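Class, carefully examine what follows:
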Amino acid sequence: MISLVALGAVILAPPARADYATSAQALQQACEALIAPPSPMPGPPPPIPYGWPTDQDRYQQEQWRSQADAAIAQGAAGDNCVKVLREINVQADGSAYCIQTGVTYGQEARIFLAYAYRNPQYLNLGNTTVVVAAMAEAFPCVRPP
């Protein structure tokens, strides 16, 4: 197991520049949205009757808007997880961990989440540090002696 102090010496790149998820805790929430079952997009909005809408009409319109907003927000959060993981992979550039060919961002998100659940004490650190620690544990580089 690689220590976080050792990882700090390996990664000289600045933390991920993404404003949407600079803490590991924010990244954890984004990655949970990525692997969660997708929120269904609602069908077309309910029709607004001619004349004055009733409270029931307003309620149906608001319910439709909330379902649409939830589906859009979940997709955006999952995209943010992928963007952060992609940027950290580029920054690490094989110096701290060696991801095997064919590993998807969904699998990387699950690895990060498993590490985050096992080590909640690190969630106050930057996302780069915690992601690199998780990936280094899952994909250590085997250096020839």
Remarks:
- The longest helix spans residues 55-92.
- Residues 21-40+54-138 form one domain.
- The helical segments are 4-10, 24-35, 55-92, 105-118, 127-138.
- Confidence is low (pLDDT under 50) at residues 4-21.
